[in-house]
Write a structure and sequence with these properties.
- The strands form 5 sheets. Strands 10, 11, 12, 13, 14, 17 and 18 form a 7-stranded mixed β-sheet that branches. A 5-stranded mixed β-sheet has the order 2-3-8-4-5, covered by helices on one side. The chain has a two-stranded antiparallel ribbon with strand order 1-9.
- It contains 7 helices and 18 strands.
- The protein has helices at residues 84-92, 115-124, 183-190, 202-207, 237-250, 268-280, 294-298, and strands spanning 11-15, 19-24, 31-38, 45-49, 55-58, 73-75, 78-80, 98-102, 126-132, 135-138, 142-146, 149-155, 159-167, 173-180, 196-198, 220-222, 257-264, 285-288.
- It is globular and about 55 Å long.
- The chain has 311 residues and is of the alpha+beta class.
- Helix 1 (84-92) crosses helix 2 (115-124), helix 1 (84-92) packs across helix 5 (237-250) and helix 5 runs parallel beside helix 6.
Amino acid sequence: MQHATIGWGMFQTTIAREARAEGVGLHTGVYGHVRLVPAPAETGIVFRRVDLDNFPIEAQGHNVARVSYATSLMKQGVLLSTTEHLLAAIYSCGIDNIYIDIDSIEVPILDGSAEPFMQMLEKCGIRKLRRKRRYLKVLKPLEVVEGDRRIGIYPADEFRVCCYVDFPHPLVGQQEVEMVVGPETFRHLLARARTFCFERDIEPLKAMGLIRGGSLDNAIVLTNDGVMNGPLRFPDEFGRHKALDLIGDLALAGLPLLARVEAHKAGHALHTQLVSRLLADPSLWTITTEETARSEREAYLPVLSPASAAD
């Protein structure tokens, strides 16, 4: 099968084949099954609760619900939690249209990173669709500030993120990740970075009814001066994972972004506030079918195999 550059091109895409995964939800502890299914042009990224008659929940800003420790979506009272890792993988790979069938209230955490989802997408491959891709191109800056935390989105001819974190811990401290987002950059720089928490926060989180499915197999646990379940996959795995979360939340814009996003000590709440405020003000953006920065992305080798023919 011939390889070609995937995603972030002129035409919309979907996956070529189905793929499945299963596992426990990080916060609910509920076991669930996920199936990725091809979708026609103009569908977007749509979750379907197959345990509720295929009830659809679009991965869009207007469906954002609770966002304190994970990004959850809600539509007509139907909830779906911890969507960010799967959305980050799909969005970074330039997959425009896909159904995500799930039979529980929370996306499985798997190993705490986006790596298992990237492996699923690699098995799926992609298929080009006979419809031009539409981009959301930012025209004016927008910033959201809360104390020393802030996030901003600015005009650019590519999708670039810069994520800064600062935690008072000897293994973390100040970390910054900046990159143009595409399938290869995400695959090699961010996908394997796992979620993390501090040992001192475990009991308070459990008291809040969270991390019921958390374990040393799906999250890095930081002690006062080290890590309980090393080794780390990257020296700056914490900053990389925050950048992964950021991309997953930005996927809720609903279209591929042509913009630069800078996040400073931000989290899910600020990420999703930015998306909501951006979408609420049409003077800040335009919809275009022209990708203006293909060369840098096309310099990377492909990660997925397309189907042999366009659909």
